[in-house]
Amino acid sequence: MKRRLVIATMLVALVHFAWADDESADKDRVSRVRQDMELIEAFVDGGLVLAKEADPLRRAHTCNAMAGLVARDIKKAGDGKDARRIAVLSEFMKSVLVRGVAQNLQQAADEATKETARAREIAKLAGAVSAEVAPLEKTLKKALDALPDSTGKDAMLPALEGISRARAEVESIVSGKGKSSDKGFKGKGKGKMKW
Amino acid sequence: MNCETCQQLLFTNAESGPPALAAAHLASCRSCRMVWSRLERIEANIPRLPCPAATRKNELISFFLTPPQVAATPREPVRRLVFLKRIGMAAAAAAILIAVGLWLGNWAARVFSPGDNPKEAIAKKSVPAPPAEAAAKSLAGRILDCDLDLARTSDPVERVEVLARLAQVIRDESQVLADSSAGKELQTLARLHGRVMKEGLVPRARELPMKQRRATLEPIADSLLASAERLEEAAPRAKGSGSRPLEELALATTVTARELKGLIEEATP
Q1: Whether ipTM exceeds 0.90
Q2: A90 close to B131: Cβ distance less than 8 angstroms
Q3: Which of B106, B135, B170 sits opposite A21 (nearest CB)?
Q4: Is the pLDDT of residue B265 over 90?
Q5: Cβ contacts of B134 on chain A, cutoff 8 Å
Q6: B147 and B253 share a domain?
Q7: Residue B30 is part of which domain span?
Q8: Is B135:A91 a contact under the CB 8 Å cutoff?
Q9: A88 closest CB neighbour out of B131, B195, B203
Q10: Are residues B257 and B205 in the same domain?
Q11: Of B92, B110, B168, B221, which is most buried with the most CB atoms under 10 A?
């Protein structure tokens, strides 16, 4: 009887062990979705707006609003010293800035006549984006310096560089040098990014 | 009493003689009297029939009189017990092997993916995926990818296709979450999916030029119907409160597919 009990226990333990990994992966997935739910809802809203918006300037505004929400979450993750989440959110930020804001601002700038109300609105938005991104970059650099291990730094660095590049692209639109760097963000925007 | 009843009584009482009930009928019926006389003759001749000598009676008596003996060899029930134990042990061993095999299989599939050398693979297992990859795989990342495709295009066909992909992303994630008891998240996803369909896909599909409708919408509608079928199948198996959101997703998907088919019909001369 005892032997049967031991065998049965071993069987249960082994089967549980075999599936334990899958269960923890499921739990990870659920917790990620739970953590991202506000962003997910905002992204769906943003997508629905973008799907009916033909004006690149309005599209840039929508993408900038989405970038604002990502920035808010980056700050939250920074407060919680969650390096991994900061890195993932920084990837989101980089993509929104490059493929969303900068690309549409550039298109709007290309189509706008100088010294018109529209050209001023483009410059205003570009300036606002640059002003919002600069402090975020500082926060990210601080978080990066505070990381104890090189693995976390390696993970965050490309995203931080991407954000800096996106800010530079936006600033070049304000200063009227956008055309010279077209190759930079137009190329990125047309093709799909890694993620 | 008629002849049939009388003869039945005679047959059942052949050894003991005609019953009193049948006596009156026998007195008045010649044919029944003949039956009875034949039965009497048969009964009388039975003891004369040749019969082999009976030995079972003696054997049975001696079986009860002989004292019980201890069996020299294991008897049948004992042998059966040993056999069942062996089968049980073999089944247990097989189950252990299967469990170990499954675990090893899962582990090996994750760790030793093609092209990896084992050391790198083990290192990879302990280090989480790079942020770019993690972002790309996450639901938020995949939705954002669709958004940014929508942000760069004004082409109505491409918009419809991206919105269909966005809805598909939400359905796929919902189906995965249905196995994880994430009822609340599933409900939110079902609601968001409904919005993508109602406020995104259908209105944008309606804006498509008539000549582009069939080519654009037919594959999307077909894919939606297939997706709805999969969701309907998955709904009863969902954990916890996950089945209802899956049903809602399936319904919204079917309704949208029908609306798209309607739009195709409108464009068909």
Answers
A1: no
A2: yes
A3: B106
A4: yes
A5: 84, 88, 91
A6: yes
A7: 3-41
A8: yes
A9: B131
A10: yes
A11: B221
